[in-house]
TrEMBL record:
Organism: Streptomyces alanosinicus
Keyword Cell membrane part of the UniProt annotation: no
Annotated InterPro entries: Erg6_SMT_methyltransf, Methyltransf_11, SAM-dependent_MTases_sf
Protein name, as recorded: Methyltransferase type 11 domain-containing protein
Keyword Transferase (UniProt): yes
Pfam family of the protein (one): Methyltransf_11
SUPFAM superfamilies: S-adenosyl-L-methionine-dependent methyltransferases
Amino acid sequence: MVEASAPVIGPLSDMDYSRFVGLVRERNRPSGGVRTVQEVMVQARIGPGSRVLEIGSNTGFTSVNLSLLTGASVVGIDINPNSVAEAEKYAALHGISDRVQFQVQDGRGLDIEDASFDAVWVSNVVSFVPDKDRMLGEVARVVKVGGTVIAVPIYYRQQPPTDIVDKVSEAIGTPLDVMSKGDWRAFYEKAPDLELYYESDFVYDLIEDQGVEKYCDTLMAKEHLAALDPNTQTQIRDRMGYFMRLFNENLSYAGFSIMLLQKRLARDEVELFTSHSAPLLARD
Ligand SMILES: C[S@@+](CC[C@H](N)C(=O)[O-])C[C@H]1O[C@@H](n2cnc3c(N)ncnc32)[C@H](O)[C@@H]1O
């Protein structure tokens, strides 16, 4: 963990985004922020008795806010120890450390018993691993039968230019799969016992460069960053501006979806008369 008085270890110019957010302790939100948390709470019926696991909990925004809104018990796991330490502080700040806990774990091999959670939340974390199927297998394993997998993936509505794909791949530390909405649906439904029952789609509000600068200024004003030497601050500010502008451009080709899937005992029969929502006709 980087303390105010400690020098930043290693060059920042090639630090990937997962390590970078742990360093700056950015409070990473799921796409849609607190409105996504509220929509999930209602649609997945999360309440005080629910036990929820979040994979890729980062600095704790989703886990803490979900618990604040619902009273649910939440375990957040993340591969980055800095993010986990920061998430623990965030839960303590809200006085809910008794029901929201964080652990350093790899979502591709969880030290968690089968069928132990009512809901498992995976936002923007599956994209960060090359072996996505392994993470999906773990998600499906630890959710209870009848429970819900909450997926909030970023999906592409248009093919982004190659240089954006290359730069985002470098930023997330793994080759970016340019997945459409249909690709994500097919990915989750590949798990034989998961069945999609709810989805809603959004596009991002894009920000001007000024907005990016203002956001970076706010992050740089954090106590542990403001106390660093000016040279290190400049390096962090440059890397931050680079990531934010890159992600802003990347999201102009994308949207995000809230997808809820129920874990079922087994799909014993193929559904014949499938359906989809359609506008009413005049004669209806
Ligand atoms: C972009 S953040 C997403 C945070 C939050 N879930 C959201 O939607 O905003 C991605 C997080 O996934 C974590 N991560 C990456 N690979 C992981 C893995 N194999 N297991 C658990 N967490 C991982 C990173 O450390 C980072 O905190």
